């Protein structure tokens, strides 16, 4: 459901006074929604309190993505990422102290995974994302970000030897198609520069 927030970005960004999404962005959205449905939904799906909470989280994620893209166009990625992560750490740490019990009696392997999560999956990942958001419009980066569940499914199949179902394969394919549709103009330009037409190639 969180990936749904990324799908909302092009339309919400336009409502908030940002760029008007291209027709390719709108054409890619049905493929994204179908792809995420194939990846996420099953016969036991029901819409309850948990799903409403995820839907609200999706809205907040969309707003964060939009405002982060606008800030990244004016502020360097490193200080912007640092401010965001420190603020998040202070807020969540405060509530964790109130509502949770802290224990440091963990095996050494856990601390290794904690360090990898802290440095690679969080700090480095958000730094790269923030830097990339400063280089491209939100409607483009949002569609590319929908590949996140695709990479998760693919890496899980290799890392944990999980077998992808036919629904998951269809979902991954649809999201890949969505990215290609969204970036169709750039793809055509790239293909034209590398494989010129026969008429152009035959000219002196």
TrEMBL record:
Membrane topology qualifier: Multi-pass membrane protein
Pfam families xrefs: EamA
Domain EamA, chain residue ranges per copy: 49-181
Localisation: Cell membrane
Main localization category: membrane
Domain of life from the UniProt record: Bacteria
Transmembrane segments annotated in the record for this chain: 24-41, 47-66, 78-98, 110-128, 140-161, 167-184
Keywords recorded for this protein, A-Z: Cell membrane, Membrane, Transmembrane, Transmembrane helix
The protein's name: EamA domain-containing protein
Species in which this protein is naturally found: Marinospirillum insulare
